[in-house]
Amino acid sequence: MVKKVAARTAGISMDGFHARPLVFDGQTSAGPGDANRPPAADRPYDRPHDRPRDRPYTGVGSVMAAITREAEVSQELVGVQAELGEARRQLDGFKDAALVMALNPASIRRSRWANRNPAEFATVEFQALKAEIEHAGGNVQPIKVRVLPVPGGAEKGVAGDAAGDVAAGAASDAAAGVFDGQTPGYEIVYGHRRHQACLELGMPVNAVVAQVMSDQELFAAMDRENRGRKNLSAWEQGRMYSDALKGGLFTSLRRLSESLGVNLSDASRTVQLAKLPADVVAAFASPLDLQVRWAKPLADALQKDPDTVLGRARALARKRGDLTSGQIFDSLIGAAARPVAAVTVVAVAGKPAATIKAGRQGRVVVEFEPGALPGARHQAFAELVEAFLAQSV
Question: At what angle do helices 264-274 and 253-260 cross, to 10 degrees?
Fold first, then answer.
């Protein structure tokens, strides 16, 4: 027992312990040393009732109190460790969760690798997306952005495989928004159409924020997301790949196709399409009309007789509104002209309501202006057409 107590008390200091003077009746001196006793305020307690209840009275009491306190502290540590363990388990459940923030669209800039042509924002599909976002009160599907470094800080690397992440220090210094009231604090990874819609609507855009992301990572994420959603036009895809090669993100088109998991032949044709001269592209109503299967014939025609092809392109640009994209392509490569579709406009109250187009091989297409033929009247229109065609038999 003595050995156990000695082992448990080995580290306990007794510096503050003082032996209590002997006082037999409260008046009789304890001996010759009584004159040297310290003042009452400084000496140990003379009577048991003067001692605080939580202070040990004897040396053994001090030892036992220290042992008890040690056990209490150990128990408290066990409880704290259990709480920390539970907190860590809860945090682990959120480590892969994406935090969505509502950002001011003006604080976000388009990526230098942006693959959406401005003409895309004038399409019927974009207007429908914009109306959907307005009706929902925001973009339900978040866009993704990366934090830009503080102006004047470290720049992002862009040289091929050496393109690394932005320095952690620069990313940590980035402000969550607009740095000086004008300079954007974020760059779009993907979601340019949703960002543009929110910008035009004047409402916050919901976004997942990547604190650190390299140019290569941004480019790959943008390509995957766009191929998984609304496909880019062949010309847009080609421009995107061409810009990546010029910017040094990939050392070759083969390396690009391997990194992105795209077909090398398809990637090559889209890049070829994007390299067409500006005059050839301007011959079409929109670059979005260019088709990937036209890349090689147009490139071959330009290589054979560039002056003639460019001359045709400039002439076609002046009357492109009267020709289809297929007829423009045929004219550029010198193929036989396709028959121009006959168009009949149907007007109601002086405003166009529908058009009747006679296409190739005798096919006739009727197109109604938006709102001219509500869904509730489709059946009535079908019966009217049926009766009309029955009369001509």
Answer: 120
